[in-house]
Amino acid sequence: MKIYEVTVTHREARAELLSILGRDKVLVTSPQPMRLTLPMLGEGIKVYLLDLQALSQVEFDRLVAHVAEKYGLGKMIALNRLQAEGLALPASAGTLRIRETEHA
Questions:
Q1: pLDDT tens column, 17-76
Q2: C-alpha span between 77 and 74 (Å, rounded)
Q3: If both were cysteines, with which of 13, 29, 55, 66 could 59 make a disulfide (CB 3.0 to 4.6 Å apart)?
């Protein structure tokens, strides 16, 4: 099985991730970034989607709370949006590493 890991190197994004998860490496769902239109960043931005399933329950709960606070949403709305839409990480914010694992 292949693991797609992004090390976040962009200063602000790294600081934000460290404050939420306590680390600057996250798993993403695919090695190929997709293009999205993101508020504040524009159209056709290449992004990776965070592998939310790879987060522990504690990490996921902290992410939900952070998204709710950052965007002025209720926690249930933030939870529903994360579950429905995922969380995009601009590809320019980090470096992708692909590694093999024996675990399925």
A1: 999 999 999 999 999 998 987 666 667 789 999 999 999 999 999 999 999 999 999 999
A2: 5
A3: 55
* Burial (CB count <10 Å: 0-12, 13-18, 19+), residue 54: middle
Decide the pairing of beta strands 34-38 and 25-27: unpaired
Distance CA 51, CA 89 (A): 11
d(CA 66, CA 69): 5
Contact at 8 Å (CB) between 75 and 55? no
Dihedral over alpha carbons 86, 91, 94, 97 (to 10 degrees): 90
Q: Which two tokens stand for residue 74?
A: 């209720």
Q: What is the pTM of this model?
A: 0.85
Give the E-state strand segments of 1-104 in sequence order.
2-8, 25-27, 34-38, 42-49, 88-90, 94-100
